[in-house]
Amino acid sequence: MSDVQQRIDGLVKGSRVMLFMKGNAQFPMCGFSGRAIQVLKACGVSDLKTFNVLEDEDVRQGIKDYAQWPTIPQLYVDGEFVGGSDIMMEMYQSGELQQLLNKG
Questions:
Q1: What CA–CA distance (Å, rounded) separates 39 from 85?
Q2: Residue 21: Cβ-neighbour burial (10 angstroms; 0-12, 13-18, 19+)
Q3: Per-domain residue ranges for the chain?
Q4: What is the CATH number of domain 3-102?
Q5: Are the C-beta atoms of residues 86 and 29 closer than 8 Å to each other?
Q6: Which strand (E) or helix (H) includes residue 91?
Q7: Which of 1, 47, 70, 85 could disulfide-pair with 5, CB 3.0 to 4.6 Å?
Q8: CA distance linking residue 21 with residue 60, whole number of Å
Q9: Whole-model pTM above 0.85?
Q10: 6-51: per-residue pLDDT in tens?
């Protein structure tokens, strides 16, 4: 595992709810990241940690390899990859995301 992959692994496993996004929770810098934050807020997540991939090019590229997922944002819960904003939205609408987030 490369240094970048180890760093990402540490971030993912170091927080119960981790969102790799463009910008931050207070100031998302793309529509998809903004939607991801809105969905998480609607779920009442209080222990969210975010990582702004625009501030670290290595992580911005490395996170795509880490989950084998080509886009950002990426949500991880309890160390497991959940998906991007479209998957988060679908899971939210079905109630699945709330269940996942509230079991902790």
A1: 9
A2: buried
A3: 3-102
A4: 3.40.30.10
A5: no
A6: helix 85-94
A7: 1
A8: 9
A9: yes
A10: 999 999 999 999 999 999 999 999 999 999 999 999 999 989 999 9
